[in-house]
Amino acid sequence: NLSSRLDQMLNSTDPGDAVDQHMVQDWTHAIMETADRHCSNGSLTVNEMRTFLARTQFEPFLDWLTQDRLRMFGRFDLDRDGALDKHELQAAVKCYLTGQDTSRLVATPPPKHSQRSSSRDQLVWVNKLLSHQFHQQSTQLAQVKQLLAQVPDMLQSERNRTRTAYIELDQTQRELAYAQNEVEELKGMLERMKLAKQYQMTARQVADKALSLAAIIGEGEQARAQAS
């Protein structure tokens, strides 16, 4: 089947092996089936290839095609719509398998056989362009939804932080009130110490005066005793 054929080619193909048209077509078909999943419109965007070709057997081709800031990809995107249709992808696969120098590559669009085929090609191009735009809008919408889904958690986190801030503020106010009470008590103790010191000095002065009076009285009694 196709899968076993691709595995065989991937395991045996090197730059020296001959690359025929069947091999190119098989690779193109397999890559398209693997990566065309977002819009399933017969064309591959860079996002589709990076999403569905990474970590597969086609990852080396993905790295080759998206190298140098997508300049390689741009050489095969003939209509500049940001996606590769089957014709464009097949040209890229052929260059990759054959090792063709792409620096001088001049890409040409598929031939137009008739007015009907031209109109059909235009419809395919319009459909591809609209699908690509739809995919971009879907991706942006998914990103917006993802951000909106994070809003409840963000609001809950903000509420928790606000609640924690209020608790810390209340605790700080309690500690401040306790410190103010301590200050008032210290002021009261200082006032009492001043009064006690003043009282101590007054008592000492009274005692000194009493001793002085006692000495005077003693001297007077002694003088009277000597006179008598």
Describe this entry's structure for a reader.
Strands 1-2 form a two-stranded antiparallel sheet. α1 packs across α2 (about 20-35), α2 crosses α6 and α4 (about 60-65) crosses α5. It is rod-shaped, with a radius of gyration of 49 Å. By secondary structure, the chain is mainly alpha-helical. Mean pLDDT is about 80; it is low at about 110-115. It contains 7 helices and 2 strands, in the order ααβαααβαα.
What distinguishing features does this structure have?
77% helix; mainly alpha; 228 residues; 7 helices
Compose a concise summary of this entry.
The chain is mostly helical and 228 residues long.
Strand order of the largest sheet: 1-2
Number of strands: 2
Backbone structural class = mainly alpha
Strand composition percent: under 5%
SSE pattern:
HHEHHHEHH
Using only C-alpha atoms, the radius of gyration works out to 49 Å
